[in-house]
């Protein structure tokens, strides 16, 4: 099925969890937050959150400057 | 509170707004805001808070003004280069609005004194330049039950959010459970930052602080506002409380302030 990750369309496995997707994409967990369809998925939910067809996923990088 | 003629004139554009009025302006004059960092974000935020008539402003910063700060830290100027940033900021604020009482903290606040300092203030604004300080401010604000107005920036990107766990909204750790690994994020010094971006983000923080004091509108609690200066876009995303949050979650493991990881880089505000 197709999803959009950081603006790019991508094929991912059906019923994949967010956790598995992040591992597959080799996304650094520390210092990032994951947004799906305009909502941050709390870290606690990554293992159970199932990615759906058409999801718009954004990896948000922490910004620390002031 | 009775306004002087000068105050009625000074704050007339506020007083005329039904959402503010004389009552709201009195609230502002009686309010106390703590601003961490008189740098890129703190500078514009401080100027607008002072102009708005926030009665007491606490400023913490341990640095001195450097010429390289002046591209964005607009509360300082050529004449204050070499001066402690808190004193330079005080000078500008006093020149702008004599109604404001300025309290300065010219040293890095730490676990031993930060909670006690925050206790005296109504709202906390974070314009700090490093992750350990951001976590410290989050945790201290949580323990003291203070609303934390967080702003941060890097290159052309900025983020703003309001953390109010006391009202059931998420805290900074719900959004970012831990800081990035050392070395993952380069410093502003190494990577640069668009000066005017500091104005955008710092002023948004001031707007949220003023709304919070006045209890008007809807602040960015449970939301993260992401600004992309190059694409000129604002995006808002929902942030929920993380039930597993180490600070405000159901089985919280952080019970007191502790030593935080060293700054991953030497970001200077």
Q: Taking strands numbered 1, 2, ... along the chain, how are they ordered across the largest sheet of chain B?
A: 3-2-1-4-5-6-7-8
- Output the CATH homologous superfamily of the largest domain in chain B: NAD(P)-binding Rossmann-like Domain
Separation, N- and C-terminal Cα atoms of chain A: 40 Å
Provide the succession of SSEs of chain B: HHHEHEHEHEHEEHHHEE
What is the number of E strands of chain A? 5
Any idea of the CATH topology of chain A?
Ubiquitin-like (UB roll)
Number of domains of chain A: 1
Approximately how much helix is present in the residues of chain B?
Answer: 25-40%
Q: Gap between N and C termini of chain B, in Å? A: 37 Å
Low-pLDDT runs of 5+ residues of chain B are 263-269
* Poorly predicted ranges of chain A: none
H-E string of chain A: EEHEEE
**Do you know the CATH architecture of the largest domain in chain B?**
3-Layer(aba) Sandwich
What structural category do the secondary elements of chain A indicate?
mainly beta
Mean pLDDT of chain B: 94
Q: How many individual helices of chain A?
A: 1
**CATH superfamily name of chain A?**
Beta-grasp domain
> How many DSSP-defined strands of chain B?
8
Shape of chain B: globular
